[in-house]
Amino acid sequence: MKKAKKISKKAFLLVLPIAMVLSLAACGGTNEATEPADTNDGYKEVFFGDASGNFGGSMTSLDPADGWNGWFMDFYGTGETLYKLDEGYNPVPCLAESATMVDEYTWEFKIRDNVKFHNGEALTAEKVKQSLEYMLGLTARAPETYHFDSISADGQTLTIKTLEPNPALLNDLCDPLSVIQYIGDGIDYANAPVMTGPFVITEYKSGEKTVLESFADYWGGKAKLDKVNLITLADKDALTLALQSGEISLAIELDPSSLSLFSDTSKYEMHSVVSTSTIYYIFNNDGKYGTDTTLRKAVSMCIDRQSVQDLSNGVRAAAYGLYPDSMTFGGTKDLDLSVSKYDLEGAKQLLMDAGYEDADGDGYLEKDGEKLTLILVSSTDNETMNNSQALQSNLKSIGVDLQIEEYKSASDGTAEGKEWDLTTGGKILAPTGNIQYFANTMLKTGASTNVGNYSNAEIDALAVQLESTFDTNERDDIARQIVQNVLDDGYIAPIAFRNFFAVSTTNIKDFNINPSKYYFLDNQIDFVE
Predict the structure, then answer these.
(1) Domains in the chain, start-ordered, CATH in brackets?
(2) Which residue in 90, 285, 427, 508 is a FRET match for 441, CA 20 to 30 A apart?
């Protein structure tokens, strides 16, 4: 059997000059690929590409308990959690064979007997306990997700006691924050963490590449691929060219406008699934216009969501709510929408009714002698900037001056030391299928990623109520109340739902794409010549 196609340095370097012309300030794009060494017949080595930070971006530590690193470890297929999500966001056993809720506060987990860490050590309940306790003591996000009272181990039985009833604990344990790693003397957690997945990281260069090799003793069976090179390209134009030229076999999240280039189904295959990733604008409660819901509504009415969908080649869907119909609490059927269509004239009338007028005839609205100017902090990728510029043009047509500032802080999308009124955003709002994550990390007063300093007492109370509600229908009702409050306040103006998608050559087989976007590589993905 032939091995997967090698990438040549000469061909790969052709990608970079084009990318550099398009983006001289590109962040972290590699200019060289590692050629595979000569291998025996049957050895399978592949090259996959990305330009959106999915392969690590500027990650400086590989410790899965550090910040958001666990997501990358899950994505790489190097790290695993006690439970994982299936395609319907249902938690299913992974490193845990089963779970039993002893009472509302107590859960017992049976840890699999046949799992080995990458260093050959057996996975035991005690090792799981040590990993979870290490994570809880290291990560600032942990208290927002896990409210543990105690963790104990006896043989292969792990017992977790929670501070309050948690009906969604199994979903929470799917969060990559709880990736299980080996804790012990001599382990370099930042550079060489020891985990349990089908692949082992053998090389990592921040913003350039990650090299993975299969783990022979993986409990689920050795991976079909022997070596995977995850290459970070300079930008999405370079990513497109790399897939066209055959230098990579799979590309994650190409620019939607380029998808028509890969419509030949004899050469390429599209892998796409609806996710809970939503593109939106967030308004700043501490901005110049504070919590002016009328102004926020007018801005939202100027978002041409249908055009975003139409230009996406099927990987974006116009959004007026925060969650897609695929979620039991998603869609807009039971919501009272203050904005339900693109309406420039309606937006202008709304502002004029609120006292804005073009008193000096310069084409811009004023109020109390002050021009209506908004500052938008926008990411600079092509799609986001196109959306921002389209909004800028639409607002200008109704007399609103929208000034666009580029990201100055990649961590939260806000400009350091600058005033801002709204910012672009795009996150998976229910990565474990549980809206609790969204409420606890983005909406609650003082939450870790509450970038607009949003505060709503009813949402704070609903988030607490959700934590101890077991009935599924009641949980969905609470979720819809949370969404309704956010929309009523105009804090988030949704734009579109994003599919998680990739394009591969037809040589790639058994690639399983999951809507949670937690998982990418597994032991089943294959390359067939």
Answers:
(1) 1-74+197-249+507-529 (3.40.190.10), 80-194 (3.40.190.10), 274-499 (3.10.105.10)
(2) 90
